[in-house]
Design brief:
CATH architecture: Alpha-Beta Complex
Shape: globular
Strand content: 25-35%
Helix content: 10-25%
Strand order of the largest sheet: 4-2-3-5-8
Order of helices and strands: HEHEEHEHEEEHE
Number of strands: 8
Number of domains: 1
CATH class: Alpha Beta
Number of helices: 5
CATH topology: YbaK protein
Radius of gyration: 15 Å
């Protein structure tokens, strides 16, 4: 357990949602979500990465898309599912500016301006009882019930991976 609670942990506790915090050494070399899953002994299909995706147009609402760590986001599939013409991944700088968190530690549960994002989760999460996501800082993950993550984050299921 971390010595201090992250914003994501405080958000879950405020809603009375049970979770388990799991930490690993993230000092030095950055670990991808899939590498973090291996380090923690979590099935990569149960460790979800949180990605920032942008629509065309300066005033278009950004998206948070959660996908399994062992999969790649399919932007064309996601665009088709959402009726969008074109989507693109945010750059590291854009993602960090929009979320206020470091890439590798972005958590849908710690967004300061969560109303400014549309939130989606890959439909494969439906089959998971427990899901692992970032706690809002590198080296800290949260395990919680998938159904509770969907409710608290306001995520909508979408097919976002091949």
């Amino acid at each position: 357990m971390t010595s201090s609670k992250t914003q994501a942990m405080r958000a879950l506790e405020a809603k009375g949602i049970a979770y388990q915090a799991i930490t690993y050494d993230a000092a030095g070399e950055f670990h991808s979500a899939e590498e973090a899953a291996v380090i923690l002994g979590v099935p990569p299909a149960a460790m979800y990465k949180t990605l920032v995706v942008l629509r065309e147009g300066a005033k278009a609402r950004p998206m948070i898309v959660m996908v399994p760590s062992d999969s790649q986001l399919d932007l064309k599939r996601l665009a088709a599912a959402l009726g969008e013409k074109k989507l693109r991944m945010a750059t590291q700088r854009e993602a960090e500016q929009l979320t206020g968190m470091q890439v590798g530690g972005i958590s849908v549960l710690a967004l300061k301006r969560s109303a400014a994002f549309d939130v989606y989760i890959d439909e494969r999460a439906r089959s998971l009882e427990t899901i692992h996501i970032s706690a809002g800082e590198r080296g800290t993950e949260i395990a919680l019930k998938t159904t509770e993550l969907v409710v608290v984050s306001g995520a909508r299921y979408v097919r976002a991976t091949p």
